[in-house]
Every structure is written in structure tokens, then in C-alpha cells.
Amino acid sequence: MNVLVTGGAGYIGSHTVQELLRSKHHVVVYDNFLRGHAEAIPKDVPAVGASIHNKDLLAMTMRAFQIDAVVHFAAESIVSESMIQPSSCYHTNVAGTLALLDVMKACGVCKIVFSSTAAVYGDPAVWPITEDMALAPTNVYGQTKWVVERMLADFSRAYRHKYVSLRYFNAAGASKDGSIGEDHRQETHLIPLVLQTALGDREFIEIFGADYPTPDGTCIRDYIHVDDLARAHVLALDHLEAGGSSRAYNLGSESGFSVREIVRKAKQITKVDFDVHESPRRAGDPAVLIASSTRIKDELGWKPLCSDLNTIITTAWRWHKNHPNGFGQKQEVSQLRASS
Hints:
The chain has helices at 11-22, 55-64, 79-84, 86-107, 140-159, 190-198, 226-241, 259-270, 294-300, 309-322; strands at 2-6, 26-31, 47-49, 69-72, 111-115, 162-168, 170-172, 204-208, 220-221, 223-225, 247-251, 257-258, 275-279, 288-289. The chain is α/β, with parallel strands linked by helices and 340 residues long. The protein has one domain: 3-Layer(aba) Sandwich (Rossmann fold), CATH 3.40.50.720. Strand 5, helix 5 and strand 6 (162-168) form a beta-alpha-beta unit. It contains 10 helices and 14 strands. Helix content is 38%, strand content 17%.
């Protein structure tokens, strides 16, 4: 298939591009490069640097490359920013996706795999979270993803589009060959923060809350290796290509890891005894967030192959140690130009 990957220069998007190529799909990346990295894209993959709000250029790209399906990652995903600047989050995540869906409809592209989030469930009372639980997001980021899922359902009903929404919490790790990894301009994720501390880029790692009702008192979260997430996106795409129905799937470890487990394993792997400070809980942090992935295992045959904590942190450490400044010199990105 000819697949357009929006946000394909980002962390999960770039790993999915690699997995799509391994699966013999033809890939085109569409990214504004405000958060993504051009050097994360293989040099032989066409890349269009533009906003998904640019409907003319989107349409030109889809027609020029005869796109069959879209894998949609382009989004603002920092929860704290979404609460401070909800307008920006809605503009990118909701209005941007609407622009994308309108162009897909105009170009006759009717299959999309959507990178959603388990944040659409909010703070459920029981876990692991299953797909039939109520959707009740507690932050703007989760709310925008929930709105997009409703849009996808409406487009599916009205225009016969087919979609798969993949809901997950924490992507982690790096490619096993060490070629790409996690490099955010504003880092908020625990594992890279811990590894930056091991590298000496931070004085200490901060644990927010050590008095939760969990075995070691710290929050427990789902972590899935980014390569396992990438494979799930390709399986979802293959499901749609085979005529499968529109579905939502969780991707989860079904067990989770605590903050202390992450810190302890990082110290073991890096062999650095970095400083750890304990601070009060942050408002709104649930004790446990774990998602079930039974449905996607049963229906699509997905199975996490490298989401054990040792592999996650070992691959992430290799990436951060070999790329202390993240990605290097920017490579040139070819752009298609919309006609005036």
C-alpha cells in the first residue's frame, strides 16, 4: 500500500515508518517538523514539510503519491500544555484532523489508523482498562482525542471510511538497531528524564508521591516498547486493507511498572547511582493506570515482543548514551508546493 504517515518524523511515527518499510509498504511522511526530526526519516522516504491544515498541499500529496491509507500521528500531546493552551491543542488535534479527513474524502482515501490515547478513559475506578469502559477524559489532550474518535465514527457512518483507533499510555524505548529514539524538545516522559539524570544532564530525578496505595508507594503506569506500538499500527493497517471493520483497540502491558521500578532498573542498566528526590503528589495523578490489550491480541494477533522493562530501558539507554544531544544535523526535506 501507499501510506501517508502524518507526524512521521516524531517519536512513534518514525518507528512506525520503519516498521511499514519492513512490511514492504510504500511510505510518504507529512510533518510540520515543529516537534519531529527530519533525520529520523530514512533518506529514501519522501517527506513533505507542512501543516495538516494546508488542505491544498495535503490533497496534492495524496494524489501525487496515489495514497491508499493514512496513519495519523500529527498532534499536540503534552498534557500540561493542553491545560494551559487548550485552543492550540484543539486547533491541531481536532481542526487539523478534520482537515485531514476532508481531504481524504475528496481524494477517495477511506482508510485511517489513528494514534489515540488511553487518556480518553480518564481516571477509571478499576483496571486493567478495557475498551468497553466509559470514556471520560480528565484533561484537554484526552478530550481532543475523544472528539477525534467521535469524528472518525461519524465519517465512517456517513462516508464509509474505515478506521482503527489505538489507545495507549506510555511509549518507551528505542529502535533495537539504535538508529532512532526519543528526542523531545521539552521532555516530560519519565524514562528519558531518568536516563538524562544518569548522563549527568540533570542533578536528580524527582518522584512525585511515595505514599500511593501501591506495593512500593509510587505510581504504576503502562509502558509499551515503541517497536511493539509500531507493529500494532501496521497490523491495524493490514486489518483495514483486508476489509476489516472499524475498531478501537487498547495497547497495554496488563501489569505496569512503578516509578521506583523504573528508577531501580535504570540504575542497574546504566551502572550510575544518580540522586533521587521525593516530592509531594501532583494533583490529578492516579495511583494506577494499566490498559488491557486482550482485544487486539485476540482479533489482530498482536503480541508485545520487547516491552519487558529490561529491553525498554536497555534500548533507550543505548540511544541516549550514543545521542547525548538527540538528533544531529538536519537533513534537507523535500517539499511539494501547492499550486496557487
